[in-house]
Amino acid sequence: MAEEKNSRHRHRSMVLESMYPVVALMLVLFACVELCDAATVVDVYRLIQYDISGVPFGSRFSSLNHHAASLSFQRGADLSRSVLILPLRDLDIAFVQDYISQKQSLGGLLILLPQMFRPGNIGGGNVISETQGLRILLAQLEKLLVHSNIPFPVYFAFENEGTDAMLADVNKNDALGQQATATTGGYKLVISVSEPRKIASPTISNIQGWLPGARADGDSNQLPTIAVVASYDTFGAAPALSVGSDSNGSGVVALLEVARLFSTLYSNPKTRGRFNLLFALTSGGPYNYEGTQKWLKSLDQRMRESIDYAICLNSVGSWDNELLVHVSKPPENAYIKQIFEGFSNVAEDLGFQVSLKHKKINISNSRVAWEHEQFSRLRVTAATVSELPTPPELLESAGSLSDTRQHVNDDAIIKGIKLVAESLARHIYGHQGKDIKIFADDSSLAVNPFYVKSWLDILSQTPRVAPFLSKNEPLIMALKKELEDYTSEVSIQHESLDGIFTFYDSTKSSLNIYQVASVTFDLLLLLVLGSYLIVLFSFLVITTRGLDDLISIFRRPPSRKMKMA
Q: Which ranges does the record mark as transmembrane (predicted)?
């Protein structure tokens, strides 16, 4: 019995001894989990990376693993291992410009945007005066970043309680001269992604639909055609945020509503006009309207020659009392006179003004300023209706970060729709100069504000940078289906984007924010954990095997000579 009891005691002691390492491991893991719980995850959006004819632009890197720093740091400090956090509200554009132009070393740049610029933030349709200054500042920042070659990661994020608290702590430490390092601790920003890769064979997709006109009995001649066109894609500093509510979401919405209105007229043989109506949603607008050019050249020559004139819609959602009609042909041209007089008469009836702006095109220069210039190059009469007084530069003003839903006015778009629809209807049905409202507000042909709002909301939440859209992109399929509901012979044309442009992926990531302790804290924590484990180990040995066994563990073993003796 005694031997059996001793055997059980030894067995229990062996089990407890085997558990010591397990207990220690669990304690260490528990400590690590507690530390890791301090991480905050924030969605971030990378600055676009692209090449033009091999010349690099935008942010050339994507991964981050550096401590956070703020504008409160001491001038001349080494920031090569720091991520500089810049809230837009406190941004000094001259400082950023100097930093980039002087090619100073920086671990990374994180720009914090107010929530008002978040694409999903669907607010009212009027521009808030308090945000105008921030919009101008953001536009300047985008222009600087997009047209620079930046050798470090640049990301955008939106302010929230977590980023505000982090920035407050970083500002406080930097102001005291305690720049975050592995020695002093602070906040560490980590983005673990693979390096950007080239997008192979980016495509642009054009969508077109027809409303065929009515022929007179015995008339075999081809009917004249009026084209209504709008470019639907965007370009901005951050592709994952480039929704272009005004440029050119407003133009797309206006085209869809005009197609809906005329589909009602053309569905009845008695009210079908003797003009074909051609609706086209084109891609590649920011890239010299390349999609428009390729779409026009793909049309049958007879069909292209049948186009009486084309109306291009560009940015019609942020104006008050005046819209501009941009043309390439001289104002004295008979067709231009007819188009402008039609617009002027309707605008007068609606209570606002339209002005004509003429800009002659240079055939020897492949660069076009407006979409209608692609028509003019093929000797097709065309005009662009827009609120913009001057044409946007290449890769600019086509879906900037500040072009969001709350800065677009639904009423402005509706007035633009009425202008285009009424002027087209008066031309088609021969009512020029007559005070006739075919699309009166109290009629069955009235503009539908709910339809306008719904599509504007959708486009204001959908980034549309062409190289990042697939051929079967849900938005492209939705636009195609919408045209199919109101027009016939709807088709999609896929084309390759001009080879001079090269784009890179990795547009959106997750930023992990860790509040890390200093080395001193780590050493102290290690000392405390080590002491705790030693005390725990000693307690378990004493309670299970006695004090003598604990002393024997730490006792120096006898030397070989003593054993031999």
A: 523-547
Structure token digits, residue 55: 């010349």
Phi and psi of 15, rounded to 5°? -65, -45
Between the CA of residue 439 and those of 210, 251, 270, what are the distances in Å?
A: 21, 19, 17
10, two tokens = 């030894």
49 alpha carbon, distance to own chain's centre: 13
Q: Is 98 exposed, middle or buried (0-12, 13-18, 19+ CB in 10 A)?
A: exposed
Q: Is the pLDDT of residue 37 over 50?
A: no
- Cβ neighbors of 383 (< 8 A, separation 6 or more) are 309, 310, 311, 312, 325, 326, 327, 336, 339, 340, 372
> What digits encode the pLDDT tens for the residues 140-162?
999 999 999 999 999 999 999 98
Backbone angles phi, psi at 429, to 5 degrees: -100, 5
Instruction: Report CA 527 to chain centroid distance, whole Å.
Output: 49
DSSP state of 472: T
Mean pLDDT in residue range 494-522: 84
Give 331's contacts (C-beta < 8 A, 6+ positions apart): 337, 340, 356, 358
375 vs 37: CA distance, rounded Å: 60
Stretch 330-343: mean pLDDT = 93
Q: Is residue 316 within 8 Å of residue 523, measured between CB atoms? A: no
Q: What is the value of pTM for the model shown?
A: 0.84
Residue 96 confidence (pLDDT): 86
> Which residues touch 240 (CB under 8 Å, ≥6 apart)?
45, 46, 463, 507, 508
Nearest to 271 by CA among 342, 214, 210, 218: 214
Q: List, in sequence order, every residue forming a beta bridge with 516; answer none if it has no partner.
A: 186
Q: Is the pLDDT assigned to residue 2 strictly greater than 70?
A: no
Report d(CA 198, CA 136) in Å as an integer. 32
Distance CA 58, CA 46 (A): 10
Residue 16: pLDDT over 60: no
